[in-house]
Amino acid sequence: MTASPTPSLTSSPEWKSLQKHFDAIKNVHLRQMFADDPQRGRTMTVEGSGLYLDYSKNRVTAETISLLIRLAESVDLQDRIEAMFTGEKINLTEGRAVLHTALRAPAGSTVMVDGVNVVPEVHAVLDKMSAFCDRVRSGDWKGHTGKRIRNIVNVGIGGSDLGPVMAYESLRHFTQRDMTFRFVSNVDATDFAEATVDLDPAETLFIIASKTFTTIETMTNADTARTWLIEGMGGDKSAIPKHFVALSTNAEKVSAFGIDTANMFEFWDWVGGRYSMESAIGLSTMLAIGPQAYREMLGGFHEMDVHFRTTSLDKNLPVLMGMLSVWYSNFFECETTAVLPYEQYLKRFPAYLQQLTMESNGKFVTTDGGEVDYETGMIYWGEPGTNGQHSFYQLIHQGTRLIPCDFIAFGKSLNPIGPHQDILIANVLAQSEALAFGKTADEVRAEGTEEWLVPHRTFKGNRPSNTILADAMSPRMLGRLVALYEHNVFVQSVVWNIDAFDQWGVELGKVLAKNIIPELSTSASAELNHDSSTNELIRRYRSMK
Ligand code: F6P
Protein backbone atom coordinates (compact mmCIF):
# COMPACT_ATOMS: atom_id res chain seq x y z
CA MET A 1 0.00 0.00 0.00
CA THR A 2 1.36 3.44 -0.84
CA ALA A 3 0.38 6.63 0.85
CA SER A 4 -0.41 9.80 -1.02
CA PRO A 5 2.46 12.30 -1.25
CA THR A 6 2.66 14.69 1.66
CA PRO A 7 3.66 18.32 1.40
CA SER A 8 7.24 19.10 2.34
CA LEU A 9 7.68 19.57 6.06
CA THR A 10 10.42 22.14 5.83
CA SER A 11 8.48 24.44 3.53
CA SER A 12 5.43 24.53 5.80
CA PRO A 13 4.64 27.88 7.44
CA GLU A 14 4.92 26.27 10.88
CA TRP A 15 8.43 25.03 10.16
CA LYS A 16 9.45 28.37 8.72
CA SER A 17 8.15 30.18 11.78
CA LEU A 18 10.22 27.88 13.96
CA GLN A 19 13.28 28.52 11.80
CA LYS A 20 12.82 32.27 12.15
CA HIS A 21 12.29 31.96 15.87
CA PHE A 22 15.34 29.71 16.17
CA ASP A 23 17.51 32.31 14.42
CA ALA A 24 16.30 34.86 16.96
CA ILE A 25 16.91 32.82 20.11
CA LYS A 26 19.65 30.36 19.23
CA ASN A 27 22.31 32.30 21.11
CA VAL A 28 20.23 33.31 24.11
CA HIS A 29 21.74 31.83 27.25
CA LEU A 30 19.71 29.85 29.77
CA ARG A 31 21.07 32.29 32.37
CA GLN A 32 19.27 35.03 30.49
CA MET A 33 16.10 33.00 30.08
CA PHE A 34 15.94 32.30 33.82
CA ALA A 35 16.68 35.96 34.58
CA ASP A 36 13.92 37.06 32.19
CA ASP A 37 11.41 34.69 33.72
CA PRO A 38 12.20 33.77 37.31
CA GLN A 39 9.07 31.58 37.46
CA ARG A 40 10.28 29.36 34.64
CA GLY A 41 11.31 26.56 36.99
CA ARG A 42 7.69 26.33 38.08
CA THR A 43 5.85 27.12 34.88
CA MET A 44 7.86 25.02 32.46
CA THR A 45 6.87 21.80 34.13
CA VAL A 46 4.15 19.28 33.55
CA GLU A 47 2.89 16.40 35.59
CA GLY A 48 1.10 13.33 34.33
CA SER A 49 0.73 9.69 35.21
CA GLY A 50 2.91 10.07 38.30
CA LEU A 51 5.84 11.69 36.46
CA TYR A 52 6.96 15.27 36.97
CA LEU A 53 8.77 16.71 33.96
CA ASP A 54 10.81 19.87 34.38
CA TYR A 55 11.68 21.12 30.89
CA SER A 56 12.67 24.61 32.01
CA LYS A 57 16.38 23.97 31.44
CA ASN A 58 15.82 23.65 27.71
CA ARG A 59 16.80 26.32 25.16
CA VAL A 60 13.19 27.34 24.70
CA THR A 61 10.83 30.16 25.55
CA ALA A 62 7.07 30.02 25.91
CA GLU A 63 6.94 31.07 22.26
CA THR A 64 9.13 28.11 21.23
CA ILE A 65 6.73 25.73 22.91
CA SER A 66 3.71 27.27 21.25
CA LEU A 67 5.43 27.16 17.83
CA LEU A 68 6.38 23.52 18.39
CA ILE A 69 2.80 22.73 19.33
CA ARG A 70 1.63 24.49 16.17
CA LEU A 71 3.98 22.30 14.18
CA ALA A 72 2.55 19.23 15.93
CA GLU A 73 -0.96 20.40 15.06
CA SER A 74 0.01 21.04 11.45
CA VAL A 75 1.00 17.38 11.05
CA ASP A 76 -2.32 16.31 12.62
CA LEU A 77 -0.61 14.75 15.61
CA GLN A 78 -3.83 14.34 17.58
CA ASP A 79 -5.40 12.43 14.66
CA ARG A 80 -2.33 10.26 14.26
CA ILE A 81 -2.44 9.41 17.97
CA GLU A 82 -6.07 8.43 17.58
CA ALA A 83 -5.23 6.42 14.45
CA MET A 84 -2.66 4.43 16.45
CA PHE A 85 -4.96 3.77 19.40
CA THR A 86 -7.86 2.73 17.19
CA GLY A 87 -5.93 0.17 15.17
CA GLU A 88 -5.51 1.98 11.87
CA LYS A 89 -2.75 0.31 9.83
CA ILE A 90 -0.20 3.03 10.52
CA ASN A 91 2.71 0.65 9.96
CA LEU A 92 2.30 1.32 6.28
CA THR A 93 5.20 -0.64 4.81
CA GLU A 94 4.13 -3.81 6.60
CA GLY A 95 0.40 -3.10 6.33
CA ARG A 96 -0.12 -3.56 10.06
CA ALA A 97 -1.90 -1.92 12.94
CA VAL A 98 0.32 -0.76 15.79
CA LEU A 99 -1.36 -1.74 18.99
CA HIS A 100 1.08 -2.22 21.83
CA THR A 101 -1.40 -0.02 23.69
CA ALA A 102 -3.96 -2.86 23.43
CA LEU A 103 -1.57 -5.08 25.42
CA ARG A 104 -2.24 -2.93 28.46
CA ALA A 105 -5.87 -2.09 27.83
CA PRO A 106 -8.01 -3.03 30.83
CA ALA A 107 -10.22 -6.11 30.58
CA GLY A 108 -13.62 -5.12 29.27
CA SER A 109 -12.34 -2.40 26.98
CA THR A 110 -12.53 -2.64 23.20
CA VAL A 111 -9.78 -2.35 20.64
CA MET A 112 -10.76 -3.49 17.18
CA VAL A 113 -8.35 -5.00 14.66
CA ASP A 114 -9.89 -6.08 11.35
CA GLY A 115 -13.33 -6.17 12.94
CA VAL A 116 -12.26 -8.20 15.99
CA ASN A 117 -11.96 -6.93 19.55
CA VAL A 118 -8.45 -8.05 20.54
CA VAL A 119 -8.69 -7.20 24.26
CA PRO A 120 -10.22 -10.58 25.25
CA GLU A 121 -7.38 -12.41 23.41
CA VAL A 122 -4.81 -10.24 25.18
CA HIS A 123 -6.32 -11.09 28.56
CA ALA A 124 -6.63 -14.77 27.70
CA VAL A 125 -2.86 -14.88 27.08
CA LEU A 126 -2.22 -12.89 30.26
CA ASP A 127 -4.32 -15.39 32.21
CA LYS A 128 -2.45 -18.30 30.66
CA MET A 129 0.88 -16.63 31.50
CA SER A 130 -0.31 -15.97 35.08
CA ALA A 131 -1.34 -19.59 35.64
CA PHE A 132 1.98 -20.82 34.28
CA CYS A 133 4.00 -18.35 36.36
CA ASP A 134 2.12 -19.28 39.51
CA ARG A 135 2.97 -22.93 38.92
CA VAL A 136 6.66 -22.28 38.28
CA ARG A 137 7.09 -19.79 41.12
CA SER A 138 5.35 -22.06 43.63
CA GLY A 139 7.33 -25.13 42.56
CA ASP A 140 4.26 -26.92 41.26
CA TRP A 141 5.72 -27.00 37.72
CA LYS A 142 8.56 -29.48 38.02
CA GLY A 143 11.39 -30.31 35.68
CA HIS A 144 11.64 -33.70 33.98
CA THR A 145 13.41 -35.35 36.90
CA GLY A 146 10.93 -33.94 39.42
CA LYS A 147 13.20 -31.17 40.62
CA ARG A 148 11.79 -27.69 41.09
CA ILE A 149 12.59 -25.10 38.37
CA ARG A 150 14.98 -22.54 39.83
CA ASN A 151 16.64 -21.09 36.74
CA ILE A 152 14.98 -19.21 33.92
CA VAL A 153 16.97 -18.57 30.73
CA ASN A 154 15.36 -16.21 28.22
CA VAL A 155 16.73 -16.81 24.73
CA GLY A 156 15.91 -13.96 22.34
CA ILE A 157 17.43 -10.90 20.70
CA GLY A 158 16.44 -7.29 19.97
CA GLY A 159 12.93 -6.69 21.27
CA SER A 160 12.77 -10.27 22.48
CA ASP A 161 15.71 -9.61 24.79
CA LEU A 162 16.27 -5.94 25.54
CA GLY A 163 12.83 -5.39 27.08
CA PRO A 164 12.98 -8.55 29.23
CA VAL A 165 16.54 -7.81 30.43
CA MET A 166 15.77 -4.18 31.15
CA ALA A 167 12.54 -5.06 32.97
CA TYR A 168 14.29 -7.73 35.03
CA GLU A 169 17.07 -5.36 36.07
CA SER A 170 14.68 -2.46 36.67
CA LEU A 171 12.39 -4.55 38.85
CA ARG A 172 15.00 -6.70 40.53
CA HIS A 173 13.91 -5.40 43.91
CA PHE A 174 10.54 -7.07 43.35
CA THR A 175 11.81 -10.41 42.05
CA GLN A 176 11.57 -13.85 43.60
CA ARG A 177 15.07 -14.09 44.98
CA ASP A 178 15.35 -17.87 45.12
CA MET A 179 15.16 -18.00 41.33
CA THR A 180 17.95 -17.17 38.90
CA PHE A 181 17.29 -15.26 35.68
CA ARG A 182 19.66 -15.24 32.74
CA PHE A 183 19.36 -13.77 29.25
CA VAL A 184 21.06 -15.15 26.16
CA SER A 185 20.95 -13.01 23.04
CA ASN A 186 24.23 -12.96 21.17
CA VAL A 187 25.00 -15.66 18.61
CA ASP A 188 28.52 -15.57 20.06
CA ALA A 189 28.54 -18.91 21.91
CA THR A 190 30.19 -17.26 24.87
CA ASP A 191 26.86 -15.71 25.76
CA PHE A 192 25.19 -19.11 26.06
CA ALA A 193 28.21 -20.77 27.67
CA GLU A 194 28.58 -18.16 30.41
CA ALA A 195 24.85 -17.92 31.07
CA THR A 196 24.54 -21.65 31.69
CA VAL A 197 27.94 -22.57 33.11
CA ASP A 198 26.72 -22.95 36.69
CA LEU A 199 23.15 -24.11 36.02
CA ASP A 200 21.72 -27.56 36.66
CA PRO A 201 19.73 -28.62 33.56
CA ALA A 202 17.22 -30.43 35.78
CA GLU A 203 16.31 -27.08 37.38
CA THR A 204 16.42 -24.94 34.23
CA LEU A 205 13.59 -23.65 32.05
CA PHE A 206 14.37 -22.09 28.67
CA ILE A 207 12.06 -19.44 27.26
CA ILE A 208 12.57 -19.20 23.51
CA ALA A 209 11.40 -15.68 22.72
CA SER A 210 11.06 -14.76 19.07
CA LYS A 211 8.21 -13.01 17.35
CA THR A 212 9.04 -14.63 14.02
CA PHE A 213 10.77 -17.77 15.34
CA THR A 214 13.18 -17.47 12.42
CA THR A 215 15.85 -15.13 13.79
CA ILE A 216 19.15 -16.90 13.25
CA GLU A 217 20.75 -15.85 16.53
CA THR A 218 17.80 -17.05 18.58
CA MET A 219 17.29 -20.25 16.64
CA THR A 220 21.01 -21.09 16.93
CA ASN A 221 20.95 -20.43 20.67
CA ALA A 222 17.71 -22.40 21.01
CA ASP A 223 19.28 -25.40 19.23
CA THR A 224 22.28 -25.18 21.53
CA ALA A 225 20.00 -24.96 24.56
CA ARG A 226 18.12 -28.04 23.43
CA THR A 227 21.36 -29.99 22.98
CA TRP A 228 22.64 -28.78 26.38
CA LEU A 229 19.42 -29.83 28.07
CA ILE A 230 19.21 -33.25 26.42
CA GLU A 231 22.86 -33.96 27.20
CA GLY A 232 22.26 -32.88 30.77
CA MET A 233 19.35 -35.32 30.93
CA GLY A 234 21.48 -38.22 29.77
CA GLY A 235 20.15 -38.01 26.21
CA ASP A 236 16.49 -38.16 27.18
CA LYS A 237 14.61 -36.08 24.58
CA SER A 238 11.32 -36.49 26.40
CA ALA A 239 12.61 -33.90 28.90
CA ILE A 240 11.96 -31.06 26.42
CA PRO A 241 8.30 -30.23 27.27
CA LYS A 242 9.10 -29.54 30.93
CA HIS A 243 12.09 -27.35 30.12
CA PHE A 244 11.13 -25.34 27.02
CA VAL A 245 8.41 -22.80 26.39
CA ALA A 246 8.03 -20.45 23.44
CA LEU A 247 6.87 -16.86 23.04
CA SER A 248 5.95 -16.16 19.45
CA THR A 249 3.43 -15.19 16.81
CA ASN A 250 4.44 -18.21 14.73
CA ALA A 251 2.84 -21.43 16.03
CA GLU A 252 3.95 -23.41 12.99
CA LYS A 253 7.64 -22.70 13.52
CA VAL A 254 7.35 -23.26 17.27
CA SER A 255 5.90 -26.68 16.65
CA ALA A 256 8.52 -27.47 13.98
CA PHE A 257 11.21 -26.65 16.53
CA GLY A 258 9.76 -29.29 18.81
CA ILE A 259 7.97 -27.18 21.40
CA ASP A 260 4.39 -28.25 22.10
CA THR A 261 2.14 -25.30 21.23
CA ALA A 262 0.41 -25.91 24.57
CA ASN A 263 3.63 -24.44 25.98
CA MET A 264 3.53 -21.46 23.66
CA PHE A 265 2.39 -17.99 24.71
CA GLU A 266 1.27 -16.06 21.70
CA PHE A 267 1.20 -12.49 20.58
CA TRP A 268 0.23 -10.84 17.34
CA ASP A 269 1.67 -9.11 14.29
CA TRP A 270 0.26 -5.80 15.50
CA VAL A 271 2.87 -5.84 18.28
CA GLY A 272 6.26 -4.62 17.06
CA GLY A 273 9.33 -6.41 18.47
CA ARG A 274 10.65 -3.31 20.24
CA TYR A 275 7.16 -2.59 21.59
CA SER A 276 6.60 -6.09 22.94
CA MET A 277 8.00 -6.21 26.47
CA GLU A 278 4.53 -6.32 28.00
CA SER A 279 3.22 -8.96 25.57
CA ALA A 280 3.95 -12.67 26.04
CA ILE A 281 7.58 -11.58 25.56
CA GLY A 282 7.28 -10.42 29.18
CA LEU A 283 6.98 -13.98 30.49
CA SER A 284 10.41 -13.83 32.15
CA THR A 285 9.37 -10.54 33.77
CA MET A 286 6.18 -12.12 35.08
CA LEU A 287 8.09 -15.14 36.36
CA ALA A 288 10.44 -12.78 38.16
CA ILE A 289 7.95 -10.38 39.76
CA GLY A 290 4.75 -12.43 39.76
CA PRO A 291 1.46 -11.94 37.93
CA GLN A 292 0.07 -9.30 40.25
CA ALA A 293 3.06 -6.99 40.01
CA TYR A 294 3.10 -7.58 36.26
CA ARG A 295 -0.48 -6.36 36.03
CA GLU A 296 0.53 -3.30 38.03
CA MET A 297 3.20 -2.65 35.42
CA LEU A 298 0.54 -2.90 32.72
CA GLY A 299 -1.52 -0.42 34.73
CA GLY A 300 1.39 2.02 34.63
CA PHE A 301 1.68 1.67 30.87
CA HIS A 302 -2.04 2.24 30.53
CA GLU A 303 -1.97 5.37 32.71
CA MET A 304 0.58 6.91 30.38
CA ASP A 305 -1.45 5.80 27.36
CA VAL A 306 -4.47 7.61 28.75
CA HIS A 307 -2.38 10.70 29.50
CA PHE A 308 -0.97 10.69 25.96
CA ARG A 309 -4.33 10.18 24.32
CA THR A 310 -6.37 12.63 26.33
CA THR A 311 -4.13 15.47 27.50
CA SER A 312 -3.84 18.66 25.49
CA LEU A 313 -0.65 18.77 23.47
CA ASP A 314 0.99 21.53 25.50
CA LYS A 315 0.57 19.61 28.77
CA ASN A 316 1.33 16.22 27.33
CA LEU A 317 4.61 14.68 28.51
CA PRO A 318 5.41 12.49 25.49
CA VAL A 319 4.36 15.28 23.13
CA LEU A 320 6.55 17.87 24.82
CA MET A 321 9.53 15.52 24.98
CA GLY A 322 9.04 14.45 21.37
CA MET A 323 8.73 18.02 20.10
CA LEU A 324 11.81 19.07 22.09
CA SER A 325 13.71 16.28 20.34
CA VAL A 326 12.54 17.67 17.00
CA TRP A 327 13.70 21.12 18.13
CA TYR A 328 17.18 19.89 18.99
CA SER A 329 17.51 17.52 16.07
CA ASN A 330 16.30 19.82 13.32
CA PHE A 331 17.12 23.31 14.50
CA PHE A 332 20.13 22.99 16.81
CA GLU A 333 21.31 20.03 14.67
CA CYS A 334 22.14 17.93 17.71
CA GLU A 335 23.11 14.40 16.85
CA THR A 336 22.64 12.62 20.14
CA THR A 337 20.52 12.56 23.26
CA ALA A 338 21.88 11.21 26.54
CA VAL A 339 19.49 9.40 28.86
CA LEU A 340 20.89 9.44 32.36
CA PRO A 341 18.93 7.58 35.03
CA TYR A 342 19.97 8.33 38.61
CA GLU A 343 18.62 4.97 39.67
CA GLN A 344 20.84 1.92 39.57
CA TYR A 345 17.91 -0.36 38.81
CA LEU A 346 17.53 1.45 35.47
CA LYS A 347 21.04 0.59 34.37
CA ARG A 348 19.83 -1.18 31.21
CA PHE A 349 17.21 1.45 30.37
CA PRO A 350 19.46 3.37 27.92
CA ALA A 351 20.33 0.12 26.09
CA TYR A 352 16.64 -0.71 25.83
CA LEU A 353 15.91 2.80 24.55
CA GLN A 354 18.52 2.45 21.83
CA GLN A 355 16.42 -0.12 20.01
CA LEU A 356 13.18 1.68 20.77
CA THR A 357 14.38 5.02 19.46
CA MET A 358 16.86 4.14 16.75
CA GLU A 359 15.20 1.13 15.18
CA SER A 360 12.01 3.19 15.13
CA ASN A 361 13.22 6.53 13.84
CA GLY A 362 16.44 5.69 11.99
CA LYS A 363 14.79 6.23 8.60
CA PHE A 364 15.50 8.51 5.64
CA VAL A 365 12.39 7.66 3.64
CA THR A 366 9.03 9.27 4.32
CA THR A 367 5.82 7.27 4.49
CA ASP A 368 5.08 8.20 0.87
CA GLY A 369 8.45 6.92 -0.34
CA GLY A 370 10.18 10.29 -0.70
CA GLU A 371 13.49 11.19 0.88
CA VAL A 372 13.57 13.52 3.85
CA ASP A 373 15.39 16.84 3.55
CA TYR A 374 15.81 17.10 7.33
CA GLU A 375 17.47 15.02 10.02
CA THR A 376 15.46 12.25 11.66
CA GLY A 377 16.17 10.02 14.67
CA MET A 378 18.86 11.14 17.06
CA ILE A 379 21.38 8.72 18.55
CA TYR A 380 20.34 7.74 22.07
CA TRP A 381 22.86 6.61 24.62
CA GLY A 382 23.54 6.80 28.32
CA GLU A 383 24.57 5.21 31.57
CA PRO A 384 23.30 5.52 35.08
CA GLY A 385 24.43 8.41 37.22
CA THR A 386 26.62 8.98 39.04
CA ASN A 387 28.91 6.58 37.13
CA GLY A 388 28.68 8.54 33.87
CA GLN A 389 29.87 11.68 35.68
CA HIS A 390 33.27 10.08 36.09
CA SER A 391 33.41 9.00 32.50
CA PHE A 392 31.78 10.92 29.63
CA TYR A 393 30.16 13.94 31.32
CA GLN A 394 33.33 15.94 30.66
CA LEU A 395 32.36 16.05 26.98
CA ILE A 396 28.78 17.05 27.77
CA HIS A 397 30.02 19.92 29.97
CA GLN A 398 32.98 21.23 27.99
CA GLY A 399 33.00 19.45 24.63
CA THR A 400 32.17 21.12 21.33
CA ARG A 401 28.89 19.29 20.77
CA LEU A 402 25.50 20.13 22.14
CA ILE A 403 23.98 17.06 23.81
CA PRO A 404 20.49 17.36 25.26
CA CYS A 405 20.14 15.16 28.32
CA ASP A 406 17.21 13.43 29.97
CA PHE A 407 17.85 13.05 33.68
CA ILE A 408 15.61 10.56 35.46
CA ALA A 409 15.48 10.52 39.24
CA PHE A 410 13.29 9.30 42.08
CA GLY A 411 12.41 10.76 45.43
CA LYS A 412 12.76 7.48 47.24
CA SER A 413 15.37 4.78 47.05
CA LEU A 414 14.30 1.15 47.30
CA ASN A 415 17.45 0.68 49.35
CA PRO A 416 17.43 3.62 51.74
CA ILE A 417 20.81 3.28 53.40
CA GLY A 418 22.57 6.14 55.17
CA PRO A 419 23.13 9.28 53.10
CA HIS A 420 23.24 7.62 49.67
CA GLN A 421 19.97 8.93 48.26
CA ASP A 422 20.60 12.57 49.19
CA ILE A 423 24.07 12.36 47.66
CA LEU A 424 22.64 10.78 44.52
CA ILE A 425 19.93 13.39 44.13
CA ALA A 426 22.29 16.26 44.92
CA ASN A 427 24.37 15.04 42.02
CA VAL A 428 21.58 14.88 39.47
CA LEU A 429 20.42 18.36 40.44
CA ALA A 430 23.97 19.68 40.35
CA GLN A 431 24.56 18.25 36.90
CA SER A 432 21.56 19.88 35.26
CA GLU A 433 22.37 23.14 37.07
CA ALA A 434 25.99 23.07 35.93
CA LEU A 435 25.03 22.21 32.38
CA ALA A 436 22.48 24.99 32.15
CA PHE A 437 24.28 27.81 33.88
CA GLY A 438 27.95 26.89 33.67
CA LYS A 439 30.59 29.03 35.29
CA THR A 440 31.85 32.22 33.70
CA ALA A 441 35.49 33.22 33.42
CA ASP A 442 34.86 36.00 35.94
CA GLU A 443 33.42 33.56 38.43
CA VAL A 444 36.47 31.36 37.97
CA ARG A 445 38.79 34.35 38.45
CA ALA A 446 36.90 35.41 41.53
CA GLU A 447 37.89 32.10 43.11
CA GLY A 448 41.53 33.13 42.80
CA THR A 449 42.32 30.88 39.85
CA GLU A 450 45.55 31.74 38.03
CA GLU A 451 44.84 33.42 34.71
CA TRP A 452 46.34 30.70 32.51
CA LEU A 453 43.96 28.17 34.07
CA VAL A 454 40.83 30.29 33.71
CA PRO A 455 39.79 29.08 30.23
CA HIS A 456 40.19 25.46 31.29
CA ARG A 457 38.00 25.92 34.32
CA THR A 458 35.30 27.91 32.56
CA PHE A 459 31.99 26.25 31.78
CA LYS A 460 29.99 27.90 29.03
CA GLY A 461 26.75 26.32 30.18
CA ASN A 462 23.63 26.71 28.04
CA ARG A 463 23.49 22.93 27.70
CA PRO A 464 19.91 21.71 27.79
CA SER A 465 18.25 19.00 29.82
CA ASN A 466 14.95 17.57 30.93
CA THR A 467 14.54 16.31 34.47
CA ILE A 468 11.98 13.62 35.15
CA LEU A 469 11.34 13.26 38.85
CA ALA A 470 9.02 10.62 40.26
CA ASP A 471 8.29 8.85 43.50
CA ALA A 472 10.14 5.52 43.38
CA MET A 473 10.87 2.64 41.05
CA SER A 474 8.06 0.09 40.94
CA PRO A 475 6.42 -2.09 38.32
CA ARG A 476 3.83 0.65 37.76
CA MET A 477 6.54 3.30 37.44
CA LEU A 478 8.43 1.24 34.89
CA GLY A 479 5.30 0.92 32.77
CA ARG A 480 4.78 4.68 32.85
CA LEU A 481 8.39 5.40 31.90
CA VAL A 482 8.54 2.96 29.02
CA ALA A 483 5.23 4.20 27.62
CA LEU A 484 6.50 7.78 27.94
CA TYR A 485 9.42 7.01 25.64
CA GLU A 486 7.35 4.85 23.28
CA HIS A 487 4.99 7.74 22.69
CA ASN A 488 7.80 10.29 22.58
CA VAL A 489 9.32 8.28 19.71
CA PHE A 490 5.96 8.15 17.95
CA VAL A 491 5.51 11.93 18.19
CA GLN A 492 8.88 12.47 16.52
CA SER A 493 8.00 10.03 13.74
CA VAL A 494 4.71 11.79 13.04
CA VAL A 495 6.49 15.12 12.59
CA TRP A 496 9.13 13.53 10.38
CA ASN A 497 6.48 11.57 8.47
CA ILE A 498 8.37 8.30 8.78
CA ASP A 499 7.15 4.80 9.64
CA ALA A 500 8.36 4.22 13.20
CA PHE A 501 7.23 0.62 13.17
CA ASP A 502 9.14 -1.09 10.38
CA GLN A 503 12.86 -1.94 10.36
CA TRP A 504 13.93 -2.70 6.80
CA GLY A 505 17.39 -1.39 7.60
CA VAL A 506 18.32 -4.57 9.46
CA GLU A 507 17.49 -6.86 6.52
CA LEU A 508 20.47 -6.45 4.20
CA GLY A 509 23.04 -7.48 6.79
CA LYS A 510 20.95 -10.55 7.67
CA VAL A 511 20.78 -11.66 4.02
CA LEU A 512 24.49 -11.11 3.40
CA ALA A 513 25.44 -13.04 6.55
CA LYS A 514 23.37 -16.01 5.35
CA ASN A 515 25.33 -15.99 2.10
CA ILE A 516 28.66 -15.83 3.88
CA ILE A 517 28.06 -18.61 6.44
CA PRO A 518 28.71 -21.52 4.00
CA GLU A 519 31.69 -19.69 2.54
CA LEU A 520 33.48 -19.75 5.86
CA SER A 521 33.83 -23.51 5.81
CA THR A 522 37.43 -24.50 5.07
CA SER A 523 36.11 -27.04 2.59
CA ALA A 524 34.11 -24.43 0.65
CA SER A 525 35.38 -24.51 -2.89
CA ALA A 526 33.12 -22.05 -4.70
CA GLU A 527 34.77 -18.91 -5.94
CA LEU A 528 34.34 -15.87 -3.68
CA ASN A 529 32.42 -13.13 -5.40
CA HIS A 530 32.45 -10.30 -2.88
CA ASP A 531 34.52 -7.14 -3.04
CA SER A 532 38.26 -7.63 -2.60
CA SER A 533 38.17 -6.63 1.06
CA THR A 534 35.45 -9.10 2.04
CA ASN A 535 37.04 -11.88 -0.04
CA GLU A 536 40.40 -11.38 1.63
CA LEU A 537 38.90 -11.29 5.12
CA ILE A 538 37.05 -14.55 4.41
CA ARG A 539 40.28 -16.22 3.24
CA ARG A 540 42.15 -14.98 6.26
CA TYR A 541 39.40 -16.21 8.61
CA ARG A 542 39.45 -19.65 6.98
CA SER A 543 43.21 -19.86 7.50
CA MET A 544 42.73 -19.01 11.20
CA LYS A 545 40.21 -21.79 11.87
O1 F6P B 1 16.71 -6.78 14.38
C1 F6P B 1 15.48 -6.84 13.77
C2 F6P B 1 14.45 -7.50 14.59
O2 F6P B 1 13.42 -7.88 13.73
C3 F6P B 1 13.92 -6.62 15.72
O3 F6P B 1 13.00 -5.68 15.30
C4 F6P B 1 13.35 -7.66 16.62
O4 F6P B 1 13.07 -7.14 17.89
C5 F6P B 1 14.47 -8.67 16.59
O5 F6P B 1 14.91 -8.67 15.26
C6 F6P B 1 14.11 -10.05 17.03
O6 F6P B 1 13.11 -10.59 16.23
P1 F6P B 1 12.32 -11.87 16.67
O7 F6P B 1 11.60 -11.58 17.93
O8 F6P B 1 11.40 -12.18 15.53
O9 F6P B 1 13.31 -13.00 16.88
TrEMBL record:
Similarity comment: family membership: Belongs to the GPI family.
GO BP terms in the entry: gluconeogenesis; glucose 6-phosphate metabolic process; glycolytic process
Active-site residues per Swiss-Prot or TrEMBL entry: E359, H390, K510
Protein name, UniProt field: Glucose-6-phosphate isomerase
Organism expressing this protein natively: Rubripirellula reticaptiva
Stored InterPro entries: G6P_Isomerase (IPR001672), G6P_Isomerase_C (IPR023096), Phosphoglucose_isomerase_CS (IPR018189), SIS_dom_sf (IPR046348), SIS_PGI_1 (IPR035476), SIS_PGI_2 (IPR035482)
UniProt keyword annotations, A-Z: Cytoplasm, Gluconeogenesis, Glycolysis, Isomerase
GO molecular function: carbohydrate derivative binding; glucose-6-phosphate isomerase activity; monosaccharide binding
Function: Catalyzes the reversible isomerization of glucose-6-phosphate to fructose-6-phosphate.
Keyword Nuclease: no
Record's catalysed reaction(s): alpha-D-glucose 6-phosphate = beta-D-fructose 6-phosphate
Subcellular localization: Cytoplasm
Enzyme Commission designation: 5.3.1.9
Keyword Cell inner membrane: no
Gene Ontology, cellular component aspect: cytosol
CDD domains assigned to the protein according to its UniProt record, in alphabetical order: SIS_PGI_1, SIS_PGI_2
The protein's enzyme class: isomerase
Pathway stated in the Swiss-Prot or TrEMBL entry: Carbohydrate degradation; glycolysis; D-glyceraldehyde 3-phosphate and glycerone phosphate from D-glucose: step 2/4; Carbohydrate biosynthesis; gluconeogenesis
